[in-house]
Amino acid sequence: MLKIAWRKEYTHPLPENHRFPMEKYDLLPEQLLYEGTVSESNFFSPDFLSEQDILQVHDANYWQKLKSLSLSRKEERRTGFPLSQALVDRERIINQGTIDAANFALQYGVAMNIAGGTHHAFSDRGEGFCLLNDIALAANYLLREGKAKKILVVDLDVHQGNGTAEIFQNNASVFTFSMHGKGNYPMHKETSDLDIPLEDGTDDRKYLKILRETLPMLLDEQEPDFIFFQSGVDVLSTDKLGRLGMSIQGCKERDRIVFEHCIKNEIPVVASMGGGYSEKIAHIIEAHANTYRLAQDLFF
């Protein structure tokens, strides 16, 4: 069964001027239910991530600032959100959702988080709408519990997974792969284990060719036993923050490539949604929904 993490807190703690496109976290499950891709039984409601798990990845001083709502104005601006208790609670719920999804993926082969993909959160700071790094926290959990030995992060959001790269820079058990816009945020890139920077306007043909050549090579070389897939749809040509040239169909084919390689190699995968900032919310929802449709069709 396809298991999907979602709670109303994914959207509702956010202030009104930050709701778009964050309303996708409500609209996406509604669309999937309406069209019959999933039923209510596919969704699960994550609880709060424990402080113990947070401190396995994030700096204690940084977590204390979040917990006490004492980030400086500069630190708060860097995250992109006004800091509040509701926002910190939201992050803890989303991040626990990815850990729970990892356990479901071990059982069913795949699991999803309606939110997550918070790859700009560093060990000691938040950036770019990310306070805690769900991919890093879930990967650390699997390694710590002996549920995985080698993890591959496939980050295909248009923005480099800079926080994830920093967190795992000295950890040979996690290989970080980021394919992203060369001239896009963050302007200062960290060093992933493999970075593929793409020129502005990169279209479906070129993008998919690179992915088809790179992913099988990585699977052969790294032999991961678990994959975290950051499936941001800000690669679309319609995205206000993206600068690439992909179509909705091309984005769907990207997801198909990742999922089919996971199935072929019998590697469990968790997909977190990541970014998506097209002017029309319908474009965002359709591109994200394709990820779920493919997971349902290919795995079940």
From TrEMBL:
<dbReference type="GO" id="GO:0004407">
    <property type="term" value="F:histone deacetylase activity"/>
</dbReference>
<dbReference type="InterPro" id="IPR037138">
    <property type="entry name" value="His_deacetylse_dom_sf"/>
</dbReference>
<dbReference type="InterPro" id="IPR023696">
    <property type="entry name" value="Ureohydrolase_dom_sf"/>
</dbReference>
<dbReference type="InterPro" id="IPR023801">
    <property type="entry name" value="His_deacetylse_dom"/>
</dbReference>
<dbReference type="InterPro" id="IPR044150">
    <property type="entry name" value="HDAC_classIV"/>
</dbReference>
<protein>
    <submittedName>
        <fullName>Histone deacetylase</fullName>
    </submittedName>
</protein>
<dbReference type="GO" id="GO:0016787">
    <property type="term" value="F:hydrolase activity"/>
</dbReference>
<dbReference type="Pfam" id="PF00850">
    <property type="entry name" value="Hist_deacetyl"/>
</dbReference>
<dbReference type="InterPro" id="IPR000286">
    <property type="entry name" value="HDACs"/>
</dbReference>
<dbReference type="GO" id="GO:0040029">
    <property type="term" value="P:epigenetic regulation of gene expression"/>
</dbReference>
<comment type="similarity">
    <text>Belongs to the histone deacetylase family.</text>
</comment>
<feature type="domain" description="Histone deacetylase">
    <location>
        <begin position="18"/>
        <end position="288"/>
    </location>
</feature>
<keyword id="KW-0378">Hydrolase</keyword>
